[in-house]
Design a protein that fits this description.
This protein has 143 residues and is an alpha+beta fold. It contains 1 helix and 5 strands, in the order αβββββ. It has one domain. The strands form 2 sheets. A 3-stranded antiparallel sheet has the order 1-4-5, with helices on one face. The protein has a two-stranded antiparallel ribbon with strand order 2-3. It is rod-shaped, with a radius of gyration of 29 Å. The chain starts with 9 loop residues before the first helix and ends in a 6-residue tail after the last strand.
Amino acid sequence: MRKNIKALTLVEIVVSVIIMAFIMLGLTNLFITGKRYIVHNRARMAGGEIGRLFLDPLQMSVRQSESVSGAQDGWNQVNNTLTAGTKYCDSLGNIPQIPGCPSPEQRTLGAIVYNAKYTITADSPIANLKRVKLDVNWTEPAP
């Protein structure tokens, strides 16, 4: 008489557990990478939105008049924020700070503090037009 026993052997169980472990390891890595990608892109999008906070104070410094002797609002006047050069929202040594920059509390989102660097040049082919390049920087927290 022949017995018909249908069961899994120990070797089959160990092999299936190892295969499941590899699958779970791959899925875990995929989820961790996806989370990092999402956090990074959220910070990038927030940086773009917060960039507006850094540009808003500069609007009051836009001048329409040329630098005329005795004029108080010309482009090249010392009190004009948009004089050419590099400026930061946080004072760094002898580099001037842009007046009217948002406070660190206003430029903090989550645990990320955003900083700005302005590069102002007068290299435009149009007279009395200045170019402002804004670099928004931040340090993302470790996941």
